[in-house]
Design a protein that fits this description.
Blueprint: H1 8-41, H2 44-64, H3 68-81, H4 85-121, H5 128-134, H6 138-142, H7 145-152, H8 156-162, H9 165-179, H10 183-212, H11 224-228, H12 233-248, H13 250-262, H14 264-280, H15 282-295, H16 304-335, H17 344-361, H18 364-371, H19 375-400, H20 402-429
Membrane topology: Multi-pass membrane protein
Keywords: Cell membrane, Membrane, Transmembrane, Transmembrane helix
Subcellular location: Cell membrane
Length: 439
């Protein structure tokens, strides 16, 4: 492994992941504190209702959002490298326009659909007004332009500082709601304020950084005109958006399916298990955020990016194996922090944790497909795996309850890894025909 660290790109990936990881762990712990406070301040039914309200808004944003940060890096990174700020500004303007349009559409669609879908998702009429208000967060939740700008300008240090804001505010608000016995409305307010404040802080940092670099006019939103100046931008946007949105909606939609089939109590237990897994899987997320900008700058016809993917995947898989061991040793008492009434979540967690190793070790696969211009192959794999996962989740939940939900989660992640791996192997064998992704 000493040889690996002679690779400057490999060091850059780890450095950027390290920036984000410096506060991500603290943020994850604060998020768990918020859930623990909610678990003690609410009964299992209202705790599950809180997770359903939050995940409904997340799901709406995940379905309608564009992955505008990928667009910014795809067109902005090579432009800045050759001193072409005009193209970089166009990429940001296009991304910003997409965020505004998709955010407003997502909010309106979520609010219109909620009265018709609430019963199916386990949200009762008593809590419907607060759920409708919570949908107003969709535009800021789904905006990815600030994140893309920060990655483009290599300000992972600012991203690291900002990402602690939302979990810190949520933990403080949830603790206050528990201490003052504010009930369900108090916890919804805590979640709402934390989400919108954290997003506004990120926007403020983005504005400051663009102004410092003389690029503030990049925040004039544009769509058709700017897209015409970015070759094949609409094709790239739609393909990557649908693929990533399918992946992002797994958590919210699966939680809603569990709630609709098994009730809000089961949804709360499932939320605890998935939250712990998400927290444990953060190292892979951090590596992805550092890996993607670097991989897009490499020559896919060489072996360099493929070796980089194997090395980072092995590191992530090793971390996943370590996390599984920690869950086996200390998972049950940790889940007990939520309250003894939620200990049933540990059995679910001990089943779902095997998906963690799979997802962490396979995280470079999608970026490799984007690097060689095979976004459609990534989309096909993601769509097929999502259909398999959600279909198995609906069936196995009805047959085996929460055990079925956990089994579907593991099989869904395995299907996604396999379906991504097959086109990656084919691309590697034909790598000589690929030109650099960004020229």
């Amino acid at each position: 492994m000493r040889h690996w660290f002679r690779d400057g790109v490999f060091r850059a990936v780890l450095r950027n992941a390290g920036y984000l990881g410096s506060t991500k762990l603290v943020g994850a712990l604060l998020g768990l504190i918020a859930l623990i406070a909610a678990g003690h301040g609410l009964d299992p039914v209202t705790f599950g209702m809180l997770t359903l309200v939050h995940t409904y808004a997340l799901g709406a944003g995940a379905i309608t959002k564009f992955q505008s940060w990928q667009l910014i890096l795809r067109y902005g990174a090579p432009a800045l490298a050759r001193g072409d700020e005009s193209t970089a500004r166009d990429a940001i303007r296009f991304a910003f326009g997409l965020d505004i349009a998709s955010g407003l559409v997502g909010m309106v669609a979520a609010m219109i659909a909620l009265p018709f879908l609430a019963g199916d998702f386990g949200i009762d009429g008593t809590h419907l007004p607060l759920a409708l208000i919570y949908c107003t967060l969709v535009p800021t939740m789904s905006a990815a332009t600030p994140t893309g700008v920060m990655r483009l300008l290599d300000r992972f240090d600012l991203l690291a500082k900002q990402q602690i804001a939302t979990p810190l505010l949520r933990a403080a608000g949830a603790t206050l709601a528990w201490a003052l016995n504010l009930g369900f409305p108090g916890f919804v307010l805590a979640w709402y304020v934390a989400d919108i404040t954290g997003d506004l802080i990120l926007w403020a940092l983005t504005v400051r950084e663009l102004r410092r670099r003389g690029m503030i006019e990049a925040l004039r939103p544009g769509l058709m005109g700017t897209a015409r100046r970015l070759p094949d931008s609409w094709s790239f946007v739609w393909t990557t958006n649908i693929s990533t949105s399918l992946n992002a909606c797994w958590g919210p939609i699966s939680n809603l399916i569990v709630g609709g089939v098994l009730g809000p109590v089961a949804a709360g237990l499932y939320k605890i298990a998935t939250t712990l897994l998400d927290s444990a899987g953060k190292p892979a997320d951090l590596l992805t955020k550092g890996f993607y900008p670097e991989i897009m700058r490499l020559d896919p016809s060489s072996k360099h990016p493929w070796k980089l993917a194997v090395r980072t995947g092995l590191i992530a898989g090793g971390i996943g194996l370590l996390v599984v061991a920690l869950i086996l040793v200390g998972g049950k008492p940790f889940v007990g922090l939520f309250g003894h009434k939620y200990l049933a979540a540990y059995g679910l967690l001990s089943l779902m944790m095997f998906a963690l190793m799979i997802s962490m070790a396979s995280f470079p696969l999608q970026s490799l497909l984007y690097m060689v211009g095979r976004q459609r192959a990534a989309l096909a794999a993601q769509a097929a795996a999502t259909i398999v996962y959600l279909g198995m989740l609906s069936i196995l939940c009805r047959l085996f309850g929460l055990t079925g939900a956990g089994t579907a989660y593991v099989l869904g992640n395995a299907a996604l890894a396999l379906l991504m791996l097959l086109p990656v192997l084919g691309s590697y064998r034909r790598r000589e025909r690929y030109a650099p992704a960004l020229t």
